[in-house]
Specification:
The protein has helices at 2-14, 24-51, 53-65, 92-108, 110-121, 127-169, 178-195, 198-207, 213-218, 220-234, 240-264, 269-286, and strands at residues 66-69, 74-77, 85-86, 176-177. By secondary structure, the protein is mostly helical.
């Protein structure tokens, strides 16, 4: 059954996409057509998301004064005081709605965008590369969504609660600019979405033979240091709390990448040669030569904003 499925994929999907040796100008024309289609789809979705931009911004404000409870799958209000939002420029509120609606449109259109990218690059790939790159792109998109969701439900509420509570305890009155908050939240979502790509990146590097699992394990201390350095650069605030919130998952994902490299990494050439030794020895013995058999090693709003549609505090 598995062989039949592979044969059907090869005959029905991969072979029709074989490279027809198109000239450079035809490649540029095809790139223009696919880019135009992608822009049109994003603009159509953007017109729908902009209509619900106010609701999207309210949802983006939920982690500011709420904490997600995984056991009940609900948001619970925190002890923070009311945090009113202000805008410091005439067009600031409108621009933030456009920003949030645009990002949401890109996220919703991502499957189609990946499809267009796939159809453009697949003719230039070999069959074995298509079988690997296709699933890799799909899993990469899912990993980005998982990272953004993890940031929204867990990391962002803790970070905002810590920062706002610190300012309140210091005697300051919380009053946040809508532009600063939207930028802070969107940056966290994007960075954590990219952070969840670390295991896939390490697996791809191992698949290409650039690194392997023992090499990654050997330099785990440097990976820990690099996680905190990268977190210090990427976090929008210099406090160590938010740096730890980002560096911790990044380092854990590094070990997930080690597991992926061990499972899907490229077999070293030494192991390949060792596995081929018994066959060569048997061939030599059959020809009358005295070749010894070697052993094979195992590869090792101004008021509180709660959840939209939920109870108010």
């Amino acid at each position: 059954m598995l062989n039949k499925v592979n044969r059907w994929l090869q005959d029905s999907i991969f072979k029709p996409l074989e490279d027809k040796k198109m000239p450079v100008m035809e490649h540029l024309v095809e790139f223009q057509v696919r880019l135009t289609r992608a822009v049109i789809v994003v603009m159509v979705i953007f017109m729908g998301t902009f209509f619900y931009a106010d609701a999207l911004v309210k949802w983006l404000r939920v982690p500011l004064q709420n904490m997600f409870v995984p056991s009940n799958l609900t948001w619970e209000p925190t002890d923070l005081p009311t945090v009113p939002f202000v805008f410091l420029a005439p067009a600031e509120a409108l621009w933030q709605n456009i920003k949030v609606a645009g990002l949401c449109a890109i996220v919703l259109a991502m499957p189609y965008l990946l499809y267009e990218v796939w159809r453009f690059v697949v003719p230039g790939l070999h069959v074995q590369e298509r079988r690997f790159v296709g699933p890799f792109v799909c899993v990469s998109a899912l990993a980005f969504y998982a990272g953004a969701a993890f940031s929204f439900f867990f990391v962002l509420p803790f970070a905002l609660n810590f920062l706002i509570a610190y300012g309140v305890n210091a005697g300051f009155v919380p009053q946040i600019s809508i532009a600063q908050y939207v930028g802070f939240a969107l940056w966290f979502l994007m960075v954590f979405g990219l952070t969840f790509e670390v295991p896939l990146a390490l697996t791809l590097m191992a698949k290409l033979g650039w690194v392997d699992a023992p090499f990654l394990i050997q330099y785990w201390k440097w990976a820990l240091l690099g996680s905190f350095v990268i977190a210090a650069i990427l976090t929008p605030t210099p406090d160590p709390f938010n740096q730890t919130l980002m560096a911790g998952p990044m380092f854990l994902l590094y070990w997930v990448g080690i597991f992926g490299a061990k499972m899907f990494g490229k077999t070293p050439a030494s192991e390949t040669s060792q596995s081929g030794t018994p066959a060569m020895a048997m061939a030599g013995a059959g020809a009358g030569g005295n070749v010894s058999r070697s052993s094979v090693g195992k590869s090792s709003d101004d008021e509180y904003v709660g959840v939209p549609g939920g109870p108010r505090r």
